[in-house]
Design brief:
Length: 174
Amino acid sequence: ENTSLVGKAVVVTYKLKVTEEAIDSKTTKNSATLTYSNNPKTNTTTTTTPEEEYVYSSKVVVTKGDGTDNSIKLSGATFVLMNGNKYYKAVMDGEKLVKVEWEDSIDNATKYTTGEDGIISFEGLKDGSYKLVETEAPLGYNKLPQPVEVEVNCDYDDNQKAIPVVTEKTIENK
C-alpha cells in the first residue's frame, strides 16, 4: 500500500475549445463535471464537483478621429483597456480570441494601435464600466490627458437570454 501521496493536493487540468457556434449569447455558460473517489479501496463512493465558467462576447469598438474634423480618422493611436485597476490582456489562438485575462501591470496588457480606418476593438467583455487609456497619440496630436470611460450594457431577448452588444466610442484628438 503506497501512502506517499496521502494529504497531497490533486490538480486536474483540462482543456476545451469553445467554437463560434457555442457563443450565441453574451454570457454563454460552459461547464464540466469531475467525479472522483477519496476511497482507494473502492470506486463506488464518489463525489461530483461541477465547474462553471462564463464566456463573454460583447465588445467595445473605438474610432479615433480628429477633434476639429471628425470625418478624418487617425492612425497611430495606441490604447489599453482598464477594468477597475486591472488591464485587458487578450489570449489568442492565431486570429481567434480564446479568453480575456486582467493583468496588474500595463506592461502586460494588450495594446491596440489604430490603422488607417482609425478603428480598434476589445472583445470578450461582460457588462460593466471600463476605461480606455491612450498610451500613444497619433503623430502631431496630443495624447488624451485622462482615461475615457465606456459602459458595456447588454440587451435581453424574450427568453431573458443576453444578446451580445457592440459598444461604440469615438475618441477625438486635437
